[in-house]
Amino acid sequence: MYKYLCVFIFLGLNFLVQSQCEQVYIKGKVIDSLNQPGFYNLMVINLTTQQGVFGQASGGFAVYARPGDRIAFSVKGYRKKYIEVPEQNEKECHFDTLIYITKDVQEFEAVTVYPIKSLEQIKEERESLSMRETRTVTGVNVFDSPITALYERFSKKAQSKRLVAQMEYRDNKNMIVKELLRAYVSYDVVYLEEEQFTAFINFLNIDESFLKTASDYDLIMYIQDKLEHYKSLHPELFNLK
Length: 241
What we know:
This protein is an alpha+beta fold and 241 residues long. The chain contains 8 helices and 7 strands, in the order αβββββββααααααα.
């Protein structure tokens, strides 16, 4: 009895092994649920055997693999999708499948894009550059209003107003010079990175009168000359030996 039982188990296991497919025909289609583009760079890769084939432009594919093999679907710009080949009985050594993929969303650091003004626009801003007036009593008016003059001279509020006006003026002046540098960089007149502007402008310390009245040519020559001087003082900022 025991002998017959062993034979029966052996035959049963042999039947199960023989009834399982050694190769499975996998047919399907890769789909982007949001769009319907052509997948001209679709790759179907058997990670177990390290072999791969190209899919069709429509997203269709057909490959052979063994049960248990791990298959990857790769499309540039999309996240990879993986499946494991399931066991199949001998009568059905194939299966159809749909593979849904999604865009590979990447996060990048924020980039600020500055509009480039024309030299004519910047020239108008240069010519109109001025410090906001704060009420100041001077000259003959001091005798007409001595109390007001003394107040403006020693009042913290009046001093604060003048300080704010000076800071606004300096910021406006520096902004105009930044606009000039952006324009010159876009025209390949000077070579500076945006993050280098502030330090160079502080070094430049351009005179207000010259900034307002100089021609474009004179400004270019002046800034180019100052930039060469700045580079000689800070070669490490420009990969200079």
